[in-house]
Specification:
It is a single chain. By secondary structure, the protein is an alpha/beta fold. It has one domain: Rossmann fold, CATH 3.40.50. The protein is 45% helix and 15% strand. It has an eight-stranded mixed sheet with strand order 1-2-4-3-5-6-7-8, with helices on both faces. Helix 3 packs across helix 14, helix 4 packs across helix 5 and helix 8 packs across helix 9. The protein is globular.
C-alpha cells in the first residue's frame, strides 16, 4: 500500500510539474493590439472598460456588408473577402465579444442573443440603416438570429458554413478533437490555462480541406487571441453548452424573407454540409452553393471564387429593387 501511494504521488507530482510547464498567462490587450490591430481598426465603447473591435473600410456611400466570424476566430478570417469587396462595398467586420481584440461582456449570457445585440448596436452607432449580413460558422448562427429579430434592417443574408442546425443521431462526429475535448467539464478545467497551440494547429488543419492553408502566423494568432484577458472563460462557456442558444428548424427559419445565400464546403469537418442544405431548404427562396473539395472556411480557402459568388448573388438580390425604381 505504501509503495502504491508513493507511485501515485510520484505520478501526481510529474503531472503537476507538466501542468506548470505548459501553463500560460493572459496576454494584455495592449500587446495584442500592437500585433493585430491596423489602420482600419476601430472600437465601439460599451462602458466599464468593455469594447468591441471592428474594421470599417470601403466607400462611405456604397452598399454595406457586415461580416461576422466563427468560434475562436476573429475578423481576420474575412480579410481575403475584405480586400476584394472594399472596392465596391462598405465592409464592416467585427470581433465578437470574447474574441479577437474585443473584450468580454457578460460571459454568463454569451451566445447568439448577445452577438445579435452587439451587431445591432454597432450598425446603429455607425448610422447604417440597411445592410447585408454574412456570418461563418458561429457567426452564421448570429446572422440568422439577427435576420429573425431585425428583418427590416437586412438587405440580404449570407450563411457560410453556418452553425445552429442540430446534428442528427446517425451523423458521424467528424469535428476536430479540440471541440470534443472542450465539451468535457473536467477537461475544460484542466486545460483552461495551458498552452493549446498544438491542439489549435490540429483543429485548424481539420477545418481546411487543404491543411497547407494553415500557417504558423495563423496558429499564433488564434493561440494569442485565446489568451486575451477573459477570452478563455468566454470560449469555455460557449463550448460548455450553457450559452443561450436556439436551434434551427424549418418552422423557425421559414419566417426569414430577405434574399439569402447559403454557402457550404462539402469537406467541412466541423459542420456537415447537410446542414447547409437544410438552411437552404428552410429559408424561402434561398440560393445554395455547395463547394466541392472545400472545408469549413470558404472565405479563406477559395477566397476569390466565394467572393465572386457573393458579388453575383448581391447583384441579383439588388436587381429587382433597382428595376422597380427605374420603372417608377
Amino acid at each position: 500500500m505504501l509503495r502504491l501511494f508513493a507511485v501515485l504521488l510520484t505520478i501526481g507530482v510529474i503531472l503537476f510539474a507538466g501542468w506548470l510547464t505548459l501553463r500560460r498567462d493572459d496576454i494584455p490587450f495592449g500587446k495584442l493590439e500592437t500585433l493585430y490591430a491596423n489602420v482600419d481598426s476601430r472600437y465601439l465603447s460599451l462602458g466599464d472598460n468593455q469594447q468591441i473591435h471592428f474594421r470599417d473600410t470601403g466607400p462611405r456611400n456604397a452598399p454595406v456588408i457586415v461580416l461576422v466570424h466563427g468560434f475562436a476566430a476573429s475578423l481576420h478570417t474575412w480579410e481575403p473577402w475584405v480586400a476584394d469587396l472594399k472596392r465596391d462595398y462598405r465592409v464592416v467586420s467585427i470581433d465578437l465579444p470574447g474574441h479577437g481584440l474585443s473584450t468580454c461582456l457578460d460571459n454568463e449570457t454569451i451566445g447568439p442573443d448577445q452577438f445579435v445585440d452587439v451587431i445591432d448596436r454597432l450598425v446603429r452607432t455607425l448610422n447604417i440603416e440597411r445592410f447585408t449580413l454574412a456570418g461563418n460558422s458561429m457567426g452564421g448562427s448570429a446572422a440568422w438570429h439577427y435576420a429573425l429579430t431585425h428583418p427590416q434592417r437586412l438587405e440580404a443574408l449570407v450563411l457560410v458554413n453556418a452553425a445552429g442546425w442540430p446534428r442528427e443521431g446517425d451523423e458521424p462526429d467528424s469535428r476536430p478533437a479540440v471541440f470534443r475535448i472542450l465539451e468535457i467539464g473536467l477537461a475544460r478545467r484542466v486545460i483552461r490555462d495551458l498552452d493549446l497551440t498544438n491542439m489549435i494547429r490540429s483543429g485548424l488543419e481539420r477545418s481546411f480541406a487543404d491543411p497547407s492553408f494553415v500557417t504558423q502566423d495563423m496558429v499564433d494568432r488564434y493561440a494569442s487571441f485565446s489568451r486575451a484577458p477573459c477570452h478563455r472563460d468566454a470560449l469555455l462557456q460557449l463550448t460548455g453548452g450553457r450559452s443561450n442558444r436556439q436551434v434551427a428548424s424549418d418552422e423557425l427559419l421559414s419566417s426569414i424573407q430577405v434574399p439569402t445565400l447559403v454557402m457550404h464546403g462539402d469537406q467541412d469537418n466541423v459542420i456537415p454540409h447537410s446542414a447547409g442544405a437544410k438552411f437552404a431548404a428552410a429559408i424561402p427562396g434561398a440560393e445554395y452553393i455547395l463547394y466541392e473539395g472545400v472545408g469549413h472556411l470558404p472565405q479563406e480557402e477559395i477566397a476569390a471564387r466565394s467572393a465572386a459568388d457573393l458579388r453575383a448573388f448581391l447583384n441579383r438580390a439588388r436587381a429587382p429593387r433597382e428595376d422597380v425604381s427605374l420603372a417608377q
